[in-house]
Predict the 3D structure of the following.
Amino acid sequence: MLVELNGRQTAFPEGARLRDAVALRCHEMSGWGGATPPPDAPVVVLNGWQTDEDGPLRHGDSVVVVPRGEFPAREELASMLRARNAPELADRLAAARVGIAGLGGIGSHVAVFLARAGVGHLHLVDFDVVEPTNLNRQAYRTCHIGMPKAEALRRELAEIQPWADVCIDIVKVTEACVRTLFAGDAIVCEAFDHARSKAMLVNTLLEQCPDKVIVAASGMAGIGSCNAVTTRKAARRLYICGDGVTEGGPGQSLMAPRVAVCAGHQANMILRLIAGESEA
Amino acid sequence: MVTVNGTKVTPGLTVADYLRQAGFDVSRVAVEKNGEIVPRAAYGDTLIEQDDEIEVVRFVGGG
């Protein structure tokens, strides 16, 4: 029978067990599969689930074995993603390219979520630099202060998913440059801060780019119930996430959890679009 | 009657008239008619007609 072991088709005799696959990758198994596996036993993922239990191998199984604490090779990481996402979705995710306009509380989290999920190509657009005041809700750290957000986020993503292809544009998005700037992105995530900038980007993309789908955000300030934050399909090519009304401003700050909830809505809708779903 | 954002309005207005009457700031909205964008330059010429489905998306700040 054939089993995909760390991304490679590997032949095993009938009756082989998971521990045989583990032994092939780790000659010292460090007690994996025993009643009380020691802390240094390898990490074993069978068909997308991490397991400590031995069992029979079946034809077509996907097994990933990584010695604990060791960084996996590229094909091992890709294999883990494939096993977790189902192969056809993993292929679509790896081929997808998403543009993210604005890298504040929404955009920085959307980028992190999409990279973790296995989106292969991310296009990060923002003109601004990281300020200390951004740390209340954006996916940056003190070491990034003063750095362009696009560059800081590229470095963060490289630590999370080193083989995602990330390209950046450190520019202010104007109506004149929208079409050219996002020409290569089938899906654009609108993640600006100002209402007028949001409306400008969404209108310009929908008016000038007939095939593009936009996932935008409106209303996520404060600490109101997260249950008010939704995804809705506003038009054939436009999805809006947020509560639609809660504006950031004096006395109503943008707070990390609700902003991240909205970013999660957007990232999930983007994954659904990549998977071929069109309902909100 | 016509449905705009789920509520009934009288047909015959242009999109520009409707937005003004309803108090929208045109620089913060996107308008869809029957699922497709109404270009901003066409608000003054686009009539809201019987059986149209109009959706005005209003953006608020924050991100």
